[in-house]
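REQUEST FORM: STRUCTURE PREDICTION
Request ID: SP-0412
Submitted by: Lab K.M.
Chain count: 1
Length (residues): 185
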Amino acid sequence: MIDIPVEDFIFVVCALVGGGLLLVTVLLDDILGAVFDFDVGGVSLMPLLLSFVSMFGVGGLIATQVLDVHGGQAAIWGAGFGVAGLLLAYVIFGTLRRAEAPEPFSTRDLIGRDAYVQVGIPAGRYGSVLVKAEGQTHEFSATSPLEIGVGSVVRVSGVAGSGLIVEPITATGPAPASEGGTGVA
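STATUS: Completed
RESULT:
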């Protein structure tokens, strides 16, 4: 029969279970969605904990097999490796999270911005406007109590469902190139 010291067995189990579950968590993140979604500074908590557990096992094995350290000292080495693994995972997952697309903005964020009428807006009905937000030009349906023609510059004054409520600024002309404008001519 194979004789494995208890401490080595514990470290191997930590390394294999922690590493395996970390791999499953990373691969199935899109499928599981927010099942284990507890954020720590924008990073999901599950990969951080599993990184600690797996690196604790790896560090403990290195301590017992390479450094010939046992008992509490091996656990301290394992904890050191675990903290290093946790910090490394935090940096990696944090970087990946920041590299993702920015959070979608709310239509309420557009209130007060200038827009350019793309499809004329009949009084009390809907047309279409272009609004610059988050560095891109977006098209929204828009309504106004007044009739507004194509090419007019309007200001977003409110939100109606998924559409915008706008009011005219000028009769016609291209949108201004200012920060609040659309930059669309």
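NOTES: Residues 56 and 78 are 4 Å apart (CA to CA).
Reviewed by: T.R.
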